[in-house]
Write a structure and sequence with these properties.
Helix 2 packs parallel to helix 8. The chain is mostly helical and 455 residues long. It is found in: Cell membrane.
């Protein structure tokens, strides 16, 4: 990363950081897409089982990854304030913390998985697939969270193209193993949706090992010597990471878990409705990679500028990010509405299921716009290390407003299952407004704490 002067230079630097992040996020999303898509072609029951398994796993994975992503603003501000010598210690402590977090989740998950599934009204085979998917996937939790730390470090240095290349290497591995294990090709066992969990776990190990290799040999990372120095566990540093990371993780968890919560409510409907909901949500999640990528880019660039006390530049990057996110979201919403039938056909060959997916796609198109505001704003707030209010605002918006509204519409109107998606759109809109108000307040307050020439 380099200091910029003109708006054109900032836009160029923003795109330089953003583009590899976007490719990385799309590739990561495509792994889930292929899990869902290929399971759907195995059977509607396999698709439903993967949907339930994903709805339980994804919020936990996203929330805990959000805690570890605290490495990004920590490292970016250290670079902006010329304290690079402290990076190695911070990253190693985050790696150690990631292992502890992984072990805790494995223990808790092992105790709670069956009771949770038992509470749901699932067909026997759907429950079997959901259980097997999660158990197999859990064998890759430790490398997944460790890679989250390494990727956050790589991105914070502005070397986002390396994250992109690592993820692009992993994508064909995931697809190939899915093909072999879901459908039982070339003598491999036919595992259906459970095979998607095995494929994900193997991919997590591969992506972690590739990241370790890249950090050891690539020039941009050598001076930090991450794996050349041993740092003893520091509870104090873990506390600092958690103080910043837990609010970030909770904010992400509340946002992602609302979709999982809706999926769990969907278990009261028939298998076709569950499958259609999951397919539409999966494609919407792929489109979500655009504002999510802009969110990450803003965390890096705003954190760098705030660390260097260049608050005017931080505000300009924020405006660029929000403007780009909003413009792209309008484009994706229009495209989704125009081609929803064709998109739906990617998930199934069953005409009835395709029509049901297409109906869900209509609602998915509308919350793209709210996501385009709320998500990048959270990225900017993380760059300022202002994270505590965000998780409170997301909790209120999604869980106190969005989910209850969806439940009422779904159960007391003719919209039925589609009512939950109306609730999602309502919660996201409230979140966008409240988070943007918080960001404007933080920017005004920051001006009072730096010299006038830095403003």
């Amino acid at each position: 990363m380099i200091p910029t002067v003109t708006l054109l230079q900032k836009f160029s630097e923003f795109l330089k950081i953003l583009f590899p992040i976007l490719i990385t996020q799309i590739a990561l999303s495509l792994m889930t897409f292929f899990d869902t898509n290929m399971s759907g072609h195995a059977s509607a029951e396999d698709l439903a089982g993967v949907a339930i398994g994903s709805s339980l796993w994804v919020p936990i994975q996203a929330g805990l990854s959000g805690i570890l992503v605290a490495v990004t603003p920590i490292v970016s501000q250290l670079i902006g304030s010329n304290q690079r010598s402290k990076i190695s210690f911070n990253v190693v402590q985050a790696l150690l913390l990631s292992v502890v977090v992984s072990i805790v989740i494995l223990i808790i998950g092992g105790l709670l998985l069956n009771p949770i599934l038992d509470l749901m009204s699932l067909e026997p085979y759907v429950r079997e697939v959901a259980h097997g998917f999660i158990v197999c996937l859990s064998t890759g939790i430790i490398p997944l969270f460790a890679y989250t730390v390494l990727r956050s470090y790589i991105d914070a240095l502005g070397q986002t193209r390396f994250s992109m290349m690592i993820t692009l290497c992993a994508l064909p591995i995931n697809v190939a193993i899915n093909y072999l294990l879901i459908f039982g090709k070339f003598g491999f066992p036919k595992l259906g949706g459970i095979g998607a969990g095995v494929a994900s776990a193997i991919t997590y190990w591969c992506v972690f090992l590739i990241a370790v290799l890249v950090i050891r040999i690539a020039k941009p990372f050598r001076q930090d010597q991450l794996f050349s120095r041993w740092h003893s566990p520091s509870l104090q540093k873990w506390g600092e990471i958690l103080k910043l990371g837990i609010p970030m993780g909770f904010a992400i968890f509340f946002e992602v878990a609302i979709f999982a919560g809706v999926t769990l409510f969907m278990s009261n409907y028939d298998t076709m409705t569950i499958a259609a909901h999951q397919a539409a949500q999966n494609f919407a999640a792929t489109l979500y990679m655009i504002p999510l990528s802009i969110c990450t880019a803003l965390t890096i660039l705003v954190g760098y500028e705030v660390g260097a006390k260049r608050l005017k530049d931080a505000r300009q990057y924020t405006k660029l990010g929000l403007g780009l996110a909003l413009a792209l979201s309008l484009c994706t919403a229009v495209i989704l509405l125009a081609f929803r039938q064709s998109v739906s056909a990617l998930y199934s060959s069953d005409p009835v299921l395709i029509d049901l997916i297409a109906h869900f796609m209509i609602y998915a198109a509308f919350y793209q716009i709210s996501d385009a505001i709320a998500t990048p704003v959270q990225g900017a707030l993380r760059g300022y290390k202002d994270v505590n209010p965000a998780f409170v605002l997301t909790f209120i918006s999604y869980w106190i407003i969005g989910l209850p509204v969806g439940y009422l519409i779904a159960n007391y109107t003719d919209y039925a299952a589609f009512g939950y998606w109306i609730g999602l759109s309502t919660g996201l809109a409230v979140g966008a407004i409240t988070l943007l108000s918080r960001l404007l307040w933080v920017q005004r307050q920051a001006i009072h704490f730096v010299p006038s020439e830095s403003k």
